[in-house]
Structure prediction request, 329 residues.
Amino acid sequence: MKHIHKRTALVAALAACAALAWPTLGLAQTFPSKTLTIVVPFPAGGGPDVAARVLAEKLAPKLGQAVVVENKPGAGALLGAGTVARATPDGHTLLLTPNTLAISPHVLAAGAGGNLDVQKDLVPVIAPATTPLALVAGPQLGVKNLAELATLARSKPGLTYGSPGNGSPMHFAGEMFKKSAGQDLLHVPYRGVAPSLTAALGGEVQLLFVSLGGALPHIKAGKLVPLAVVEKSRSSLLPEVPTATEQGVKDVEVAAWYGVFAPTGTPAAAINRLNQEINDALKLPDVRERFTGAGLEVLGGTPARLADFMKADHLRYGALARDLKIRAD
Prediction:
């Protein structure tokens, strides 16, 4: 009788464990069950949009569901991010954003983007890419490096520089450059990389701090002149262009990464599946080629890696915003 009771207890315990595991197992087997949406919080045409569309194309056949990209620009990435944060947390709605997401809360008015808490309302999936940042000029400005720009700025104070928006890494790069180089430049924010590029190409602004994710084709075509890379080291995408530090302008080092996020509460099984499939897609030669062509450097890795990026940038840019007095224009 004792053996029977022990056996009965063991069967009951196993059944209980199976019942607890069933929701996760069930999700792993059924996810995804409908169309996935990748929200890009910037207009079409920029680096984030390119990355999202390349990944959507590769994910659809692997996941067995359509994957659509939806552009929701506004509030320095917070508008689109808020849309994702409020979505059903089942893995079918994702955000692909540059690290503007970590910065905008420090420079925009309280409540921008619907009181989104970027640290709590979204969970990391993967950081698919980084993109080098550069200072470029239109050919009509007639400068090819920072020394020539300094000479021109002294004779013509008030040169304009564009960025993809307030709170963007490029905005910070511009203000850091102004402080370090001691130049009088006027910031003109736009709503994304693509509009800022259009402005620079049309001569609406004279200088532009921009990610190579959108600018590289125009640089190669001679329509924009790269003056400096504003990171710690030269970029493999533009190896001949020196950094600002190499040209004597120190403390202008700004990195830009792209992150994929899901609403908080999304099951781990969905996060892990998405992370695995995106990592696999990033290994494909044509994906790497298309990313490189768009000025992106493939990254990938675990959700924890993206979480570390997010935490570090949220702290760093909060301090920089106070030091540089960057606020919404």
